[in-house]
Amino acid sequence: MARVNDEAAAALQEYADLFAMTGGDAFRVRSYQKAAKAIAGHPEDISGGDVRSVPGVGEAIAKKIEEFLSRGSFRQLDELRGRVPEGVRRMTRIPSLGPKKAIFLFTELGIDSPAALREAISAGRLSGVKGFGPRTEANLLKGIDQMEQAGRRVHIGIAMELAERVIASLSGEGVRRIAHAGSLRRMKDTIGDIDILAVGPASLMEEFRAMPYIAEVIAAGEKKTSVRTTGGVQVDLRLVPAESWGAAMQYFTGSKEHNVRIREMAVKKGWKLSEYGLFEGERVIASRTEEEIYAALGMPWIPPTMREDGGEVAAALKGELPEVVTLDDLKGDLHTHTDLTDGIASLEDMVAAAGRLGYAYYAITDHAPDLVMQRMTLDKALAQRDRVARLQTSYPGMRLLHGTELNIGPDGTVDWPVEVLEGFDVTVASVHSHFNQSRAEMTARFIAACENPQVHIIGHPTTRKLGKREPVDADWEEIFRCAARTGTALEIDSYPDRSDLPAELVRLARHHGVKFSIDSDSHAVPHLANQRYGVGIAQRAWLTTDDVINTWPLERLLAFLGRGDG
Ligand code: DGT
Ligand code: CA
Ligand code: CA
Ligand code: ZN
């Protein structure tokens, strides 16, 4: 994935925020935001070509980006950064506090950071200030807590891209092995710090400390160096002896609870297990590969995603580890968008990218009319269906499915009538508003959606956004029972800040007999690759191909969707 695009997009987005905060013209703010989105989603590296070829990037924005590419910032951004302190910018990331209010608090009351805002609220300095009633104050305090918690962990998308960048930057001559371990290898949806192991020369540590992405060296030793990156994430790099590679990977992959369980077994045999190997006294029993270590303890190799002390060791000892679903097993994607609604790539570009992934089927599911911002109409949907049919002739090996992402209203109804819905090959129905309904109302809402025969998949079910929005409150077991009974699949939305359903709920749902769809929810070409995160969730929940409808051959999938003869 094009890293420089993300950085340029982030700078432009920051500029848009600052521009809005300082009273800039709303139309121009929109155009910066749109260009930032387009640059982030652009499949080619913008440093290689002309940024003017990105849709939505005109001359003025192109100049800013070119300056950014040459020196890491641009004049107008520097100027606004000078006017708005860093702490005030962090205040805008408090959920429920917009840029306008943040700048108001700064200019009127001198509040210049989230911590200062918390103090001001506690000291009652905001009482009587227009627009800041007791309820708003309570929401702000909650938002500050949420932000601080989120600041300590990052979602897997950020961590994985950073780990790949670090590994690429260190993979020079003399480095014989380098890989990530820890919670990232176990594919947890949030990551505390990134653990990287390497076999290489001692000079690698020095090289690492000099990398441009490093903001602070926390600890520098011969065996381990810990740093904080410019993005605020901690990375631990460990040099390990070549002959201990397997033992080190096993140890530092964790989880701690899984390792405790494994070590107990070694102890029972009178052996010792450490990051250097499995030993009987001084004698090495196994150390080079993870496979040898697990084998010596009487088990097959356990996939990292299952190493959570959730029964995997007992299952492995009995030879009953399930064969969990892998990325290669996916035959298609059932939830994707185009520029007809809020995607940024055309239908043709999205389908071409799906074709390159070798999919057997691919669904286009733009939003239905309820989300008024998207300006969808039946005419547009039908015109898109014609385009899909024409495009199909160019993809003999990949079945294009014309679908839609429906909006589940507060009462559980969806935004097109039955006769329209029958015309789609596949429908995903999701909640996009009214997140604060009571548990009973929310449960009834999902159950109504599942009971609708024209709803095939419930999209991003909890609607959480990591670090931004809590999951909705609902009786999930009740909903899972209903989904199993009605043959409604639940989505594993692979977009990393959603990661929704989360693994614990997937595991619970599976016990009720629910089927799942691992979808990318792509809004741009590079997002298609996010499927790997959804597969991580599925593995953490022990799903096999039988549980995941988009690993099935086309015929079986169509039968499940009630579109069998199509
Ligand atoms: P995180 O960073 O909070 O997302 O989670 P992890 O699992 O990456 O935890 P971390 O970075 O503290 O340690 C990486 C792995 O190293 C951990 O999963 C297991 C192993 N490890 C670290 N400290 C200990 C320990 O004191 N005992 C054992 N058995 N294993 C440890
Ligand atoms: Ca870690
Ligand atoms: Ca660590
Ligand atoms: Zn959605």
Q: What is the gist of this entry?
A:
This protein has 566 residues and is α/β, with parallel strands linked by helices. It has 23 helices and 17 strands.
SSE inventory with pairings:
Elements: H1 3-21, H2 26-41, H3 59-71, H4 75-83, H5 86-91, H6 99-109, H7 114-122, H8 134-152, E1 154-155, H9 156-170, E2 177-180, H10 182-185, E3 190-191, E4 193-199, H11 204-209, E5 214-220, E6 224-229, E7 234-239, H12 245-253, H13 256-268, E8 272-274, E9 277-280, E10 283-286, H14 290-296, H15 312-317, E11 332-333, H16 347-356, E12 361-367, H17 378-392, E13 399-407, H18 418-421, E14 426-430, H19 439-451, E15 457-458, H20 476-486, E16 489-493, H21 503-511, E17 516-519, H22 531-540, H23 554-560
Parallel strand pairs: 4-7, 11-12, 12-13, 13-14, 14-15, 15-16, 16-17
Antiparallel strand pairs: 1-3, 2-4, 5-6, 6-7, 8-9, 9-10
Helix pairs in contact: 1-2, 1-3, 1-4, 1-6, 7-8, 12-14, 19-20, 20-21, 21-22
The structure holds 2'-deoxyguanosine-5'-triphosphate, calcium ion (2 copies) and zinc ion (ZN).
Rounded mean pLDDT is 94
CATH class of the largest domain, please? Answer: Alpha Beta
Would you give the CATH topology of the largest domain? Answer: TIM Barrel
- Biggest sheet details: 7 strands, parallel
Strand tally: 17
Low-confidence stretches: none
Broad structural category: alpha/beta
Strand content: 5-15%
Indicate the CATH architecture of the largest domain.
Answer: Alpha-Beta Barrel
List cofactors, ions and other ligands.
2'-deoxyguanosine-5'-triphosphate, calcium ion, zinc ion
Radius of gyration, whole Å: 25 Å
Count of domain modules: 5
Query: If strands are numbered along the chain, what order do they take across the biggest sheet?
Result: 11-12-13-14-15-16-17
Percent helix, as a range, is 40-55%
Morphology: globular
The number of helical runs is: 23
Subcellular location: Cytoplasm
GO cellular component, one term: cytosol
Protein name: DNA polymerase beta
Domain Helix-hairpin-helix DNA-binding motif class: 49-68, 89-108, 124-143
